Amino acid sequence: MTDRPSSAPPTTSPTASAEFPIVRRALLAADLGGAEVARVEIRQIDLEPAQQTGLHRHASPVVGYIVRGTIRFQIEGGPLQSLSEGSAFFEPPGIRILHFDNASDRQPARFIAFYLLRSPDQALIEMLA
Question: Staple partner for 50: which of 42, 61, 92, 105, CB 3.0–4.6 Å?
Fold first, then answer.
């Protein structure tokens, strides 16, 4: 087999223009309180129907995005929230997370979590119960 130039025309995609504007929708603004970040770990987390994460906290800030499903979310001192697909969330460091549960008893849920770690060997999560 030899490498030959392709005779097919190159494919192009629309570029940003008045006809195809790039849309940047704000999802979350979180004050990190001057947190020093040495490493970021990004995890995809899947929850089975009705699965609960349990009481926990993080030593560093966590931001994330709900990819699929609906999450019941509550941090200590805050209201119970319903995070639907496309929602962003913030878990401050050291605050107990009372609920991060799949709200559906029929459908799985998926989210992406960005752990903003102070050191490479820092634990991602501390289970409290």
Answer: 105
